[in-house]
Design a protein that fits this description.
Structural class: alpha/beta
Order of helices and strands: EHEHEHEHEHEHHEHH
Number of strands: 7
Strand order of the largest sheet: 3-2-1-4-5-6-7
Bound molecules: NADP nicotinamide-adenine-dinucleotide phosphate
Largest sheet: 7 strands, parallel
CATH class: Alpha Beta
Number of helices: 9
């Protein structure tokens, strides 16, 4: 347990929650391996960490490109004797009704590519080092929206739910070999990802710094889940009564969307 001295591989650390998590983990004494596509943004985050006396290395990578992912994993393994934690945080979100995605199978493919396949791919590459160490942790970032029946995000939510299922299998198979697995279920967070939906401008959201503190908690305490009471209640209700829970909440979501559209003048 604890954070000091741990080598943490953090994907999606060029922006949003990942960037803030990098700062907080570095301040707590972790050694950060920063992974994302934009090298200039990674350098900026690395510099800020070094300026505050922390340790960070950068690995510019397109995680949807298998060759790029494997080269980065090999480089991390060569440059660091231990890999204590992998945080699969890099992702993309798509907000689109299924009825408007009828000729857009690629929406489902590209969310799967980064949100699921890339996360599994990096896990498979780094897992042998964790098993050799007899100890390690995989933190997978998901969303409160997979715990309640939210409309309009089918591609995104399916990919996150796949990642949750993989996380459960990983813990069930390798928990007894020292591998901890944590899923983090975020509510809406004010980042470049959520800002792409203009009607969300007026929605109350968690700050990226608060969201980052959930990743810090995940690594410090190693629980199976970090999330909200609302999410836990939602997943229990959905498991018990999927039909009624979905039917009765949908008018509320439609009303919320209508209100947000009115407030944003659209
Ligand atoms: N914001 C929310 O409301 C919210 C709610 C629930 C869950 N989440 C989850 O929280 C996590 C962080 O999201 P965020 O809001 O902080 O989003 P963000 O600011 O858009 O950051 C996404 C990160 O993923 C990286 N990334 C995207 N595609 C990549 C690729 N192909 N290869 C490598 N890196 C890639 C981006 O870096 P580059 O562009 O430099 O590659 C960026 O650093 C995600 O898993 C998201 O699903 C967010």
């Amino acid at each position: 347990m604890g954070i000091k001295g741990k080598t943490v591989v953090l994907t999606g650390s060029s922006s949003g929650i990942g960037e803030q998590a990098a700062y907080q983990l570095a301040a707590a004494g972790a050694r950060l391996c920063l992974v994302a596509r934009r090298e200039d943004e990674l350098r900026r985050v690395q510099q800020a960490i070094r300026d505050s006396g922390g340790e960070a290395w950068i690995y510019p990578t397109d995680l949807t490109d298998e060759v790029s992912l494997q080269a980065t994993a090999a480089k991390i393994l060569a440059e660091h004797t231990r890999v204590d934690v992998l945080v699969n945080n890099a992702a993309r979100s798509i907000r689109r009704p299924i009825a408007q995605a009828l000729d857009r199978l690629h929406d489902y493919q590209r969310t799967m590519d980064i949100n699921y396949i890339a996360a599994v791919g990096l896990t498979l590459k780094l897992l042998p080092r964790m098993l050799d160490q007899g100890e390690g942790q995989v933190v997978n970032i998901s969303t409160l929206s997979s715990q309640v029946p939210i409309p309009l995000f089918s591609a995104y939510l399916a990919s996150k739910t796949a990642l949750e299922s993989f996380s459960r299998s990983l813990l069930a198979e390798l928990g007894h070999k020292g591998i901890a697995v944590t899923v983090v279920y975020y509510p809406m967070v004010r980042t470049p990802m959520s800002s792409r939906t203009s009607i969300y401008k007026h929605m109350p959201m968690m700050s990226p710094a608060k969201a980052a503190s959930w990743i810090v908690k995940a690594i410090d305490q190693r629980p199976a889940r970090v999330g909200s009471l609302m999410g836990t209640a939602g997943s229990i209700a959905l498991a018990a009564l999927p039909g009624p829970v979905t039917r009765y909440t949908q008018p509320l979501f439609r009303l919320m969307d209508k209100r947000l559209k009115e407030r944003s003048g659209r």
